[in-house]
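Quick one: examine this chain and its backbone structure tokens and tell me how the chain folds. Here goes:
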Amino acid sequence: MKSESKTLGSLVPVNILGTEKILDQMKNCTCKIKLGNRNATGFFCKIPIINMIFLMTNFYVITEEYLNENKEITISLNDDKKVLVIDLTKERKKYFSKEYDVTAIEIKEKDKINEYLEVDENILKDGIEKYYKQKSIYILHYLNGKNINVSYGILNKIEKYDIIHICSTDNGSSGSPILNLENNKIIGIHKQGSNNFNYNKGTLLKYPLNDIIKKYNKNENKNNAIIGEININEDDIDKDIQIISSFENYKRNIPLGFKNLEMFVPDIKNEDKYKNEKEIKENIDIKINEKIIEFTYNYKFKKEGKYKIEYIFKNNLTNTCFMFENCKSLISLNLSNFNTQNITNMLCMFGDCHSLNNLNLSNFNTQNVTNMFCMFSCCNSLNNLNLSNFNTQNVTNMSYMFCKCRSLTNLNLSNFNNQNITNMSYMFENCNSLTNLNLSNFNTQNVTNMSHMFENCNSLTNLNLSNFNTQNVINMSYMFENCKSLINLNLSNFNTQNITNMSYMFVGCNSLTNLNLSNFNTQNVTNMSYMFCRCNSLTYLNLSNFNTQNVTNMKGIFLDCQSLSNINLSNFNTQNVTNMYKMFCQCNSLTYLNLSNFNTQNVTNMKYMFVGCKSLTKENLITKDNKILKELESKFISLGKNLNLFD
């Protein structure tokens, strides 16, 4: 173990995150290592691409010689509240580097380590020295072999594979994780202090990680391949069954959907670099039931049954949009050897794969993907989808991504980085079976479109959007339409200053009893049609902050709000409204309504405005507007008519 030094950093928190919060989050990811009279720190890290968890520390803390001579190693977590004995007699993957001063030991499932640090994958890119210079960082360590502590400081510079940093350290700090304060992700491992006490030194994690990935990546030396399974029926025997989408079909724009193309037909016609069929043939080998066949777009199957088709790519693809779209008979798909590291476009990649009920994408490297539009749309047999390994930092479009995944009951998006996404419209539309959706990690600061986002998620009982930043959103129409099971919805953090369309926003949320929108800024909204339609359990609705000066359409805004007895609209400005059709229709509990501030000079349609307001009398509707009075008279004539709510 090398010498430690106390430096210019701080053991006192200097960031709003706060020491207690950091320690609470990281206490089971960082461990104390005590070997004889030596104190040190280690940590659990999930390594990208291979998706394996390793215990990492300094080479001079746990040497290769020590591991060869000992049968086990004991570490403690959470200030000695948990003790873990790692059995070294079993086969574990190991990595040693004296040069980088890093030792890594594989953590097995039986070790029951459920928490780990995530790698800041920016460190794997080239030209990162300028990016990290003067970054705020912190390290987690067991000082002097005692309780876990946090030291804050600055990353001064990167020299080759060394991090020069200013964080206070002492005995026991060797092997500590160095984390980026911006995202709480690991960038390096602390190893030693300087002799003159001006700085400390660590290893940039990029270099040992690349070694480990290269050593243990099971796909490194395997074929870049996709494997699918199809059923061949009696009617398909000895017929030309299309097994790959032809270049000619693409040029003629022949639509998908006829029977042959509903099988497993990977669509590589969209790969930008393939300009002709010759290039396609040169890049792909096809196996059927383990036998390589001569390249062909159509194949005659000799008997019915299940067939395994393997497509082996000689070069890495950059575009997989529509790759499996409309493979409606595809029943299984093995992508464990498929290399996705260069792919930028996954648009509609699995769209309309109706028969797929399982999809393992744990090996997918999505760090360069920018488009995930409709990626899993209409995969209506999928019931579980774990995308916790997805790196979405460069994605800009997730609209329709899980649209009509009707059987999904579990969706893990815990690692999604949404910082560059602008479009989330229809993202979870018709995910009918989802009862819970954790979006607490979502960064929505650049999103402009959230229309239809949760439409028809009618099994959702709870939706926590407290972290949503909606400052740039302009469209929230249909956002929560038919979320019939939602009993509570807290939107107190929503910034709605730029929204122009709120039509149908809460339509059909018929389990909501209370909705407080007092924070809503509606100064730019022009369309509020059917906004609260069919919210028939609402007894309280706070619209006290609504500015409706630019609204032109209030058609059916409170239609069928059967439980509302009073609506305070004293702040409503209706000078630009042209449509009030069915505005209060079927509000049959409404006993009082003050519309004395309503200006209807531009309204052209007030038909059925009060029809079905059975509890509202002329005396309890306050207005001097002749148009409103005239429409009120017709209410009594129209009572009892069976009206279509949306006619």
Q: What stands out?
A: The first helix runs from residue 19 to 26.
